[in-house]
User: Fold this.
Amino acid sequence: MGQKVALVTGGTGGIGTAICKELADMDYKVASNYRNEEKAQAWKKKRADEGYEFILVEGDVCDYEACGRMVAEIEEQAGPVDVLINNAGITRDTTFHKMDPSQWTDVINTDLSSVYNVTRHVIEGMRERRFGRVVNIASINGQRGQYGQANYAAAKAGMHGFSMALAQESAKHGITVNTVSPGYIATDMVMAVPERVREKIVAQIPMGRLGYPEDVAHVVGFLVSDKACFITGANLSVNGGHYMGW
Assistant:
């Protein structure tokens, strides 16, 4: 049997890059999408310099038809998608009473509707082959809410509702669907926050540090492995104890 194929949306970001590397190290053929070709090619070259070869395909996760073309191109180049990591996401933070419609719809479309747009194009193939792994990258703020993030918290909470429903539909077809909810991770976006603000965040984390992208990637790697074949509909928190729930 040949290499399994994994698609990681938003793979050129901080967490996405770590997930792509983790899956490549597990001997997957790994593909991701891009919207800006110049940035994508620079990312691809940097990864090649590190010894990784990834497939990059243009694809706007907010556009259902574009996602169909993206999946078709990946499958033409690499084969059927066995593993899908829905990782693409953005923020448009502001308090709700100041939030304009575009700030709401941009986040909902990119962070939540994208999960439908991409998963819908791979799920039937997974059902036919009676194997699949879907992992949705949500957030601690989908679990506990966050001031100024009504749009983001709603989208990330919605991702796990999606996971639980699709997990029930897909279990008998050999497909698992799970959520990973990272806390504050030391990506470029978080490290760009003023140091005094980061210090306040770290002070709330029992482990006393920000997470690393690899902390998230290792959990994703476990969930797509055969060792996790009896786990589905779960939400695994990767937050250093910052938020604890059942």
